[in-house]
Design goal:
Elements lengths: L8 H52 L5 H4 L4 E4 L4 E5 L22 E4 L4 E8 L9 E6 L2 E3 L14 H4 L3 E4 L10 E9 L2 E8 L5 E6 L4 E3 L10 E9 L2 E8 L4 E7 L4 E3 L12 E9 L2 E8 L5 E7 L4 E3 L13 E5 L5 E7 L6 E8 L2 E4 L10 E9 L2 E8 L5 E7 L4 E3 L9 E9 L2 E8 L5 E7 L4 E3 L10 E9 L2 E8 L5 E8 L1
Antiparallel strand pairs: 1-2, 3-4, 4-5, 5-6, 7-34, 8-9, 9-10, 10-11, 12-13, 13-14, 14-15, 16-17, 17-18, 18-19, 20-21, 21-22, 22-23, 24-25, 25-26, 26-27, 28-29, 29-30, 30-31, 32-33, 33-34
């Protein structure tokens, strides 16, 4: 009988080895495909969360707190209804991929910059699109190569650390039709808005920059009567301006709905017996706060708040016991108002700071913080630290900055300016403090300085404005600094400049 040939042991081993190699390659390819799929989901989830957070911001003028985010949905509730922006916040796909640890493979959220920003952590195991592998941090400005998966301050990339920044004019210098004074600037999603008093009408106009030119926001000179001290804010997708209007004998807030300006609540929010001076606006949640000195009550300091339907005075009465020539406002991370004011009870209108604690105003540290009269102050709150800048009458009204560290006030700057310093502004970004002022000792030019906790640096190495200025101020968004001012070289017309790459 003829015998059938069979595979030899060697042949069987070769076939099994080939099958094993193919299976291994297939498994590796499948694992890589799954890992890439998980990375793609991480990026996609991050972008969806970013969109939901922007919708939340547009309705609340802040990003959610960590406690709100931890509820597992992104939503807000008003007197009218509940708006849901993301029904279920996704969790990070598991397992962690590449060199990512389990701790880095989390969606960890932190609200930062007094509710004006946030960080969300995630980690990519492989290059995904234009993103490299490793820990990532989602911010309103996009995704950056930073690990923000642990509690605490996050050092985000500063655009001026990776690229050379300089002062640049935004659009044309002197873009307003007439002379301007009382300049105020606000920037939202990299779009600058300015409000100023038109020197011809003595009413307030607002303008915005679309990337190529400046144009009016609504009708120019839109206020009812002669107006003073405009201060801008952006809330619920709308632009707001607080100011003093002679037509109402007091403080007023108007809002722009995309087509026209209208009053917010019934004007005025002040006593109605005199101008509301040195207005400062801040927003937390759905509540709008305005600090002012009430010309109808001996210029005492007040804070008014709008709760969505009407204005009321926070604390029920004046903050200062006597005359307060300047009143400025900031809010902490929890929406607690802090006010700095020139305190006549100190004997020489020295600066005092108070905060609102549930039902009453209390001093922050000792009253009478400055040695003598404080000129054109500003205030900024960062966590438990409070900062004030001002022109110090004890030092020729030169610019000084003081810090309250939770127990006492101390001077952290010495003399910053050459001459008398006016129109101070303070802003925080990425753990750094930025201070601006007009220096009468250098042709009334505007200077912006940065404090990193150890030393001060003049941004751009010299003045921020090209020429002399009148009543300028500063705003900061995503590390880009903007200043607005009446430009003496252009007939006191409005000019905006930015410090950017």
């Amino acid at each position: 009988m003829k015998q059938k040939k069979a595979f030899t042991l060697i042949e069987l081993l070769v076939v099994i080895a080939i099958i094993g190699v193919i299976a291994t390659i297939s498994i590796i390819a499948l694992q890589n495909a799954r890992a890439k799929s998980r990375d793609a989901k991480r990026v996609g989830d991050a972008k969806q969360i970013q969109t939901a957070l922007e919708l939340f911001f547009n309705d609340n003028n802040r990003y959610p707190t960590a406690e709100e985010f931890a509820l597992g949905s992104i939503f807000s509730t008003s007197s009218g209804a509940t708006s849901t922006y993301m029904q279920i916040i996704p969790s990070a796909p598991t397992p962690a991929d590449g060199s990512c640890t389990s701790g880095e493979n989390t969606i960890y959220y932190q609200q930062t910059d007094d509710g004006n920003s946030y960080t969300i952590s995630f980690c990519l195991g492989n290059t995904t699109g234009t993103l490299t592998s490793g820990p990532k941090c989602l911010t309103p400005a996009g995704i950056v190569d930073v690990d923000c998966s642990a509690p605490g301050p996050v050092a985000l990339p500063d655009p001026c650390q990776t690229e050379t920044c300089s002062w640049q004019t935004v659009g044309s210098a002197g873009f307003s039709p007439n002379g301007a004074y009382g300049s105020n600037i606000y920037v939202h999603n990299n779009v600058p808005y300015v409000a100023f008093i038109d020197s011809v009408s003595s009413k307030i106009s607002a303008m915005t920059y679309n990337g190529s030119s400046w144009s009016n926001v609504g009708s120019p000179s839109f206020t009812a009567g002669m107006s003073w001290y405009p201060n801008l804010n952006y809330y619920n997708g709308q632009l707001y301006v607080a100011y003093s209007d002679n037509a109402y004998s007091g403080g007023t807030v108007m809002t722009f709905d995309g087509s026209s300006w209208s009053n917010l609540g019934l004007p005025p929010f002040s006593s109605g017996a005199g101008n509301a001076l040195f207005n400062t606006t801040r927003v937390y949640g759905s509540t709008i706060y305005v600090a002012f000195s009430d010309g109808g009550d001996n210029n005492k300091s007040y804070v008014a708040k709008y709760d969505g339907s009407s204005w009321s005075i926070l604390g029920g009465g004046a903050i200062s016991a006597g005359y307060a020539e300047y009143t400025v406002l900031d809010l902490d991370d929890n929406g607690i108002p802090y006010v700095a004011f020139s305190d006549s009870t100190c004997g020489s209108a020295r600066l005092s700071v108070k905060k609102y604690e549930g039902s009453s105003w209390v001093y922050v540290g000792s009253p009478c913080v400055t040695p003598l009269y404080a000129w054109w102050p500003a205030i900024a709150v960062d966590g438990s630290d409070v900062y004030v800048s001002y022109g110090d009458a004890n030092d020729g009204q030169k610019a000084h900055v003081k810090k309250y560290d939770g127990s006492s006030w101390s001077d952290i700057s010495g003399s910053l300016s050459v001459g008398q310093a006016n129109y101070h502004s303070l802003r925080f970004y990425n753990g750094n403090l930025y201070a601006s002022y007009q220096d009468s000792g250098v042709s009334s030019a505007i200077f912006v300085k940065k404090y990193d906790g150890l030393s001060w640096e003049t941004l751009g190495g010299s003045q921020a404005s090209v020429s002399g200025t009148l009543q300028g101020n500063m705003f900061l968004e995503d590390g880009i600094i903007y200043i607005a001012y009446a430009d003496t070289a252009n007939g006191y017309r409005e000019t905006v400049r930015k410090f950017a790459p």
